[in-house]
Please model this.
Amino acid sequence: MMAKRVKVIMDFDGTLTDEALQAEELAAIAKRMLAKDILHVSVRDIRKAYEQIRKKILSCPHQFHWEVNGLPATYAYEGAYLLNTSIVQEIVRSKPAYMRAVRKLFPSDGLDPVTRCTNHLFHQGTYAVHPHFLDGVRELLIKLIEHPLIDPVIMTNSETRKIKKNLRKLRIGQCGAKHHFCHELEILGDTRQYHMDPEWNHFFQHHLQGPIQVLPVNEHFSVDLRRPVYFKALRRILDQGYNKVVVVADGFSLAGALPLAMGLRFILKKTDLTPVWTEEYVSSHPNGKVVREIRELKQQLLSLVE
Ligand SMILES: [Mg+2]
Model:
């Protein structure tokens, strides 16, 4: 079968859903699970630590990251779920006894123990959270699914089972799944855009700086590009021979910087948390666009096949 012309790679939470709203429910679950199942301390202690660390991060956000394998995967405040994950990470790191408990329960397996712990809380927690889709998402997805020249895929670090469960609310299914829906699309869950590898030896060409592994954004901000898992996932799609490949996401460091460095298009879907510097970088990049709402996103995507 000949490939369609445009591949649209879409992030899920924050891009198609109201992540800030969902994050409140997620945080409550994460605090409870962290206290009871992992650290064996009172939920009250964890709630107190959570609020303190949240304030600390938001008072100097450029100093805090979600760190994976010792490298910054994203700034802590680029999205509501990422902020929750970063807070949990800082709580765990705040006491040697907490670190010991986490190392014991989540030994390294290519990902460090703290990341494995925060992933566990994230996957268990978000599966239980009720999805709040943004206005117009069902219409957008159906338009993309039905379009003869567009091949949409949802690519996310959430697990496929969660995406499947939540899309069911829109009466949209997963291609190839047992239960058939009138409208179905491809889901690439657990893609791990956050998987950092300090040993990765790939370099990217920067128009001013030459070969780089860390993208300089401005004097305060930069994004580490050592993401071999995400790189491979994008390469696999590029090898399928599309005329255009576009990535849509609400997080720049996590999902947007690498595709731009690889020469792909990136559309930043703004949220209330989007930092100004990410918006400025993407909107001034020749392959970048910033959109505020789903209607605008639909127009942008359809303009690629006009
Ligand atoms: Mg997102």
Observations:
- Residues 11, 13-15, 79, 249-251 surround magnesium ion (CB under 6 Å).
- Residues 193 and 268 are 16 Å apart (CA to CA).
